Amino acid sequence: MFGPTGNPPPFWHNGPTPGGLYNFPGPKAVPSDFRQHSQAPVTTATSIVAMQYNKGVIIAGDLLVSYGSLARYRNCPRIMKVNDNIILGAGGDYADFQYVKDIIDQKIIDEDCLDDGFKLKPKSLYCWLTRIMYNRRSKFDPFWNNFVVGGLQDGEPFLGTVDKLGTAYADKIVCSGYGAYIVVPLLRDALEKNPAPSKAEARALVEKCMEVLYYRDARSYPKYQIATIDETDGAVVDDLVHVKQNWSLAHMIY
Q1: To the nearest 10°, the Cα dihedral for 127, 133, 135, 138?
Q2: Which of 9, 87, 120, 226 has a CA 20 to 30 Å removed from the CA of 248?
Q3: What is the C-alpha to C-alpha distance for residues 125 and 102, in angstroms, rounded to an integer?
Q4: Taking the model in full, what pTM does it have?
Q5: Is 49 exposed, middle or buried (0-12, 13-18, 19+ CB in 10 A)?
Q6: Residue 3 pLDDT exceeds 90
C-alpha cells in the first residue's frame, strides 16, 4: 500500500533507515557521521618501553591489541625496522598505526627507487611524524598513537617520541601508555646508577620493566618483541620474548 503522498510506507513504524544508527529503544534514528569515528579509538595497544644504551637504542612492546577491555588480538606486532638506521614502536590505536606504517614503508620504497645513496635518518622521520600528527590533530581527526623513534644519527644514538597532538621530545628514556607512570622511574633510577649501560645491561633492564608492566598493567601481555639498533649489529627485531612469570610475589592472592 502507498500512503497519501504516494510514497511506500517504511518497513515498520519508526523502522530502519538505510545507513542509520539507532538508539534502541528510542523512537528516532540517530544520524550517523562516520567522520567522527577516529576520535575514539577502538582497538588499542598499550605501553612502549625504550631507552638508549652506550652504543645504540632498544625498544620493546607487547603483541596484545585490546578491544576495549577485551584481550582480543594477541599477535599484533608494533615494533618495526624502518631501514638500517631506524627502528620504530607505536602504542595506541592499531589501525592508525597500520595506516602510518604503510605510508612509511612507501617512503622507504621511494627512496630505494631513487638509489641516490641517501637513507632516511631517525631525526628526519621524527620531524616528519611531528608534522603529520599535528596536521591531523589540527583537522580534529588525529592519529590516535604514540610513536617512538630510535636509531643512529651520524653514528650517535637518537631516541624521540611523538604523541597524537604532535607534541614531541627526545630523551634517553621514552615510555608510552601505562609505562610512562610505572617504568620511567625504574629506568631513571637505573641510569642514575649507570649512565652508560651496555647492550646486555639495557636488555636485562627492559625485560625487567616488561615483567613489571605485565604484573601491573591490565592491558599488557606476556609475549613481546624487542628491537635494538647499534653500529655493531645494525637494526634487529628479535623473535618473541616471554615474560618469566612468578606469581609467588602476589602474597594477597589465595
Answers
A1: -140
A2: 226
A3: 14
A4: 0.82
A5: buried
A6: no
